[in-house]
UniProtKB/TrEMBL annotation:
<protein>
    <submittedName>
        <fullName>MafI family immunity protein</fullName>
    </submittedName>
</protein>
<dbReference type="InterPro" id="IPR047880">
    <property type="entry name" value="MafI-like"/>
</dbReference>
Length: 88
């Protein structure tokens, strides 16, 4: 059984870690999806933005992204391409 509280917490944590790299509109858009219960959409939007903006992320953020993706049963192709953006 999926624990949505954990998913929401992880989405918010990932968003927090990358928030300095995102615009206020991007943050608000993702946060709005989270608050509306659209966790898959929020996750996919976050991944799209990270990819399109080619934003560097620390390993913790990538681990959160993986955990969220697995938790929501989203195809790993959605986030695996982000691995090259992980800063060592």
């Amino acid at each position: 059984m999926l624990d949505y509280k954990i998913i929401v917490d992880k989405l918010n944590e990932a968003l927090f870690f990358v928030s300095e790299e995102l615009s206020e509109n991007q943050i608000n858009f993702i946060r709005s999806d989270i608050n509306a219960g659209e966790w898959r959409l929020a996750f996919e939007t976050l991944c799209d933005i990270l990819s399109e903006e080619n934003l560097r992320m620390n390993p913790r953020v990538y681990k959160l992204v993986q955990e969220i993706g697995y938790g929501l049963n989203i195809d790993s192709e959605t986030w695996e391409s982000l691995k090259v953006q992980v800063a060592c």
